[in-house]
Amino acid sequence: MKLLVNNKETELTQGHTIAALAQQLGLPKQGVAIALHNRMVPRAEWENTVLNEGDSLVIIKAACGG
């Protein structure tokens, strides 16, 4: 299934949820937020949020700095 992740076409090869995408991309367990169609999805809902062909996601990683 093809998705747009941070405006880049990405192929989701296993599963159909945000949790499966996070695992496939090797995202860390903390410090990451994901928005589906510009709406933030709480981490508790990643396992149950089903993705569809062509969905648009934005992944934001927390960064430290000053």
UniProtKB/TrEMBL annotation:
Pfam families: ThiS. Signal peptide: none annotated. Gene3D superfamilies: 3.10.20.30. InterPro entries: Beta-grasp_dom_sf, Mopterin_synth/thiamin_S_b, Thi_S, ThiS/MoaD-like. SUPFAM superfamilies: MoaD/ThiS. This is Sulfur carrier protein ThiS. The lineage of its organism: Bacteria, Pseudomonadati, Bacteroidota, Bacteroidia, Bacteroidales. The gene is thiS.
